[in-house]
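Hypothesis: this fold can be encoded by more than one sequence.
Test: take the structure tokens below, design a sequence, compare later.
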């Protein structure tokens, strides 16, 4: 609490509510301030008070400001300690030389000839798809019919199972076979695709 006339701007007012029988000199004595200070802080023109009147009777420092000040002084102390610390140079670390990687393998073009067939049992029936045992699913294969010399690209969607003749190298959807212009269900073809 401040006993001077002026108060700092970062202070908080202390209030007192007047009760019956209290006087200005008694309130000033209770809070250890002068009557003239209470008059000035509350802009009173007379010493007369009324019940439930709210008076400023002093000011206290804002504790948050004190905490900030304490933290700032701690920060100054830490800065001084850091400034006096000897500087340590980190050791020089040589960057690792990357190992030479083997050049990527060039893709291999695979070409084969054999007997092809089409089936209505391959789904989806409305796509250029095929069953093939010589490449993983997703591989795109160019199929060329040797009798019509027409070609179509089909996507491998699975393996040829025992349900199909063993001598067929590829089984495709009917829509793909129609693109080749074949008239028979079995026909001679050549296949080509890229293998990683």
């Amino acid at each position: 609490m401040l006993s001077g006339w002026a108060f700092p701007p970062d202070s908080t007012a202390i209030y007192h509510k007047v009760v019956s029988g209290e006087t200005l000199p008694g309130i000033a004595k209770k809070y250890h301030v002068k009557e003239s200070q209470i008059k000035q802080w509350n802009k009173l023109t007379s010493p007369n008070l009324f019940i439930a009147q709210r008076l400023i009777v002093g000011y206290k420092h804002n504790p948050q400001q004190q905490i900030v000040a304490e933290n700032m002084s701690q920060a100054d102390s830490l800065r001084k300690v850091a400034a006096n610390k000897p500087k340590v140079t980190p050791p020089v670390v040589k960057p690792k030389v990357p190992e030479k990687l083997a050049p990527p393998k060039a893709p291999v073009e695979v070409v084969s000839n054999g007997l092809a067939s089409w089936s209505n049992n391959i789904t989806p029936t409305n796509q250029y798809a095929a069953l093939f045992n010589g490449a993983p699913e997703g591989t795109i294969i160019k199929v060329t019919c040797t009798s019509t010399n027409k070609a179509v690209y089909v996507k491998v969607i699975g393996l040829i199972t025992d349900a199909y003749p063993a001598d067929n190298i590829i089984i495709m959807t009917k829509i793909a076979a129609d693109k080749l212009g074949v008239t028979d269900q079995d026909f001679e073809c050549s296949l080509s695709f890229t293998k990683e």
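The two ends are 86 Å apart (CA to CA). Residues 63-84 form the longest helix (22 residues).
Hypothesis status: open.
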